Fold this sequence. Notes:
The chain is α+β, with helices and mostly antiparallel strands. It is built from four helices and five strands. The strands form two sheets. Strands 1-2-3 form a three-stranded antiparallel β-sheet, covered by helices on one side.
Amino acid sequence: MDYNDFDKSYPIKITTIKIPERPDSVEWRKGTGHWLVQLKIDSDHHICFLYSMGSGNKEQRSTGPNPPFTRGTIAHEENAYWPKLTVAQVLDSLMMDALTAEDHPSLDHYLGEFHANETYTWQEFRKARRTYEACQDNKDKLIKLLGIKGYELLITVERL
Length: 160
C-alpha cells in the first residue's frame, strides 16, 4: 500500500504557512525551513504542529542552459526554493518519528540504542530527551488524527 491508497480511506487535507523560525527556541541549522502545518480529515479529526525540513530538500529554479537540478545539491542559494509540502511527505516524516516511538518504549531504551557508549553533558541529555519526546508526541498526534485503526494502517504504508 502506498500513500495514494491510504488517501482513499483517509482523505487528509493539508494547510501550511511558511514561518521564518520556530517559536519553540530549538536550535536548527542555518537554511532549515519551518512551517506551521494543519492536517485535517474533518472538524473532529485534525492536528496542528510545527514542521521543519533541512535545506537539502530545496529545489532549484531552472535558469538558462544549466543542467536539470537534482534535489539536495544546491549550487546557487538565490535560485533555490522550498517545494510545496504534500500530505504524503508530512505523514511519512511523522510516521518515521512514530515508528521510533514504537521501537523505543522508554527514554532509557532510546538512549541505549541511539546514544550508546556516550558520556552526556546536561545539554546533550536534554536535547536527546526532547527528540525522544517529540517522537512520542508525533505518534500521539497521528493517533488523534487517524484513530488507532488508521494509525495501524498507516504503519503498513510504504515509506517514501
